[in-house]
Design goal:
- The protein is built from one helix and eleven strands; from the N terminus they run E-E-E-E-E-E-E-E-E-H-E-E.
- The chain is mostly beta strands and 123 residues long.
- The protein starts with a strand and ends with a strand.
Length: 123
């Protein structure tokens, strides 16, 4: 069992930056691929980024490529999402996810989900 707790969301002006963190419980964190999804009001949940268990492979949605960076620190059981050059369309609740396979994360079939953290980007 893995529990995920996100933090770092907030209100930021367009062009600004935020770093989201996702702290995971459990001793097997390093064996899980991790990722981030987001859901804006009235829209479906969408994939944002994923990272393999080793951190050696990363994947991004086209809409955030070049602006967002996913990383992980297995010693701290934490995954991060650095968000730069934020746009109003990045406004959403951001969810951390974990699964045994990176493909599961990317396809939204993760085993575990956090409760979400709100990111609001003002224009």
């Amino acid at each position: 069992q893995v529990q995920l707790v996100e933090s770092g969301g907030g209100l930021v002006q367009a062009g600004g930056s935020l770093r989201l963190s996702c702290a995971a419980s459990g001793r097997t964190f390093s064996k899980y691929a991790m990722g981030w999804f987001r859901q804006a009001p009235g829209k479906e949940r969408e994939f944002v980024a994923a990272i393999s268990w080793s951190g050696g492979s990363t994947y991004y949605a086209d809409s955030v490529k070049g602006r967002f960076t996913i990383s992980r620190d297995n010693a701290k059981n934490t995954v991060y999402l650095q968000m730069n050059s934020l746009k109003p369309e990045d406004t959403a609740v951001y969810y951390c996810t974990a699964a045994q396979l990176t493909t599961q994360v990317r396809e939204g079939r993760a085993d575990y989900w956090g409760q979400g953290t709100q990111v609001t980007v003002s224009s």
